[in-house]
Amino acid sequence: MHEFYQMPLFVKLKVRNIEKSKEWYANVINFNSVFDFPDANGTTSMTHLRGTKYQDLMLIQAKEVNTTDSVIINLFSSDIYSIYQAALDNKTNIIQQPTVQPWNAKELTLEDPDGYVFTITESVDTNKDFDTVIDNVNDQL
Fold first, then answer.
1. What distance in Å separates the CA atoms of residue 39 and residue 116, rounded to the nearest whole number?
2. Which residues pair with 75 in a beta bridge?
3. pLDDT tens digits for range 83-133
4. CA nearest 107: which of 89, 123, 93, 91?
5. What does CATH list as the number for 11-139?
6. Which of 3, 51, 63, 73 would suit a FRET pair with 9, their CA atoms being 20 to 30 Å apart?
7. What pLDDT, on a 0 to 100 scale, did the predictor assign at position 55?
8. 98-107, pLDDT tens digit by residue?
9. What is the mean pLDDT of residues 22-32?
10. 108 DSSP assignment
11. Other C-beta atoms within 10 Å of 39: how many?
12. Residue 94 to residue 92: CA distance in whole angstroms
């Protein structure tokens, strides 16, 4: 049973093939189905997926999908390399391999089957405080 809570923010994504997308989200970024909403014919028209708490996505079945590079969805992970390996195994378009950034993050950027861009972020050093991280960023500018 999944925990019920009010979601402070979530994203709805139109997808061409909801079942294929559900499989990709489960296999690559470890998002699992919370529940499916059927249409009048009993076919899934919307599905609620969840990674960790407060990482909620709604996939909506659509005939046409118009993605844009104006939005990049960021997700925190504590195991970026398993997601990277799953992305490779599932022939995912990898925009950026896991790369250490000056802001104390390792980032992996992927594209889902419909062209939505996700950056998976993992902390590099959890012992660094905010000021140290910002000083490091400023030093690299």
1. 24
2. 120
3. 999 999 999 999 999 999 989 999 999 999 999 999 999 999 888 888 888
4. 123
5. 3.10.180.10
6. 63
7. 94
8. 999 989 999 9
9. 96
10. E
11. 10
12. 6
Q: Transcribe 70-81 into DSSP letters.
A: T-EEEEE-S-HH
pTM recorded for the entire structure: 0.84
**CA–CA–CA angle 110, 88, 35 (5° rounding):** 65
User: Among all chains, which residue has been given the structure tokens 């390996």?
Assistant: 85
Domain coordinates in residue numbering, the chain = 11-139
Could you read off the pLDDT of 74-83 as tens digits, one per residue?
999 999 999 9
Q: What residue type is assigned to position 48 of the chain?
A: H
Give CA–CA dist 38/116, Å, rounded.
24
CA angle 54/59/61 to nearest 5° reads 170
User: Listing from the earlier edge strand, what are the strands of the sheet with 44-50?
Assistant: 11-15, 56-61, 44-50, 32-38
Neighbours of 113 (CB within 10 A): 19
pLDDT band of 9, cuts 50, 70, 90: confident
The encoded tokens of residue 8 equal 């402070």
Q: Where are the alpha helices (DSSP H) in 47-100?
A: 80-89
105-111 and 56-61: which strand pairing? unpaired
Instruction: Tell me what pLDDT residue 135 has.
Output: 82
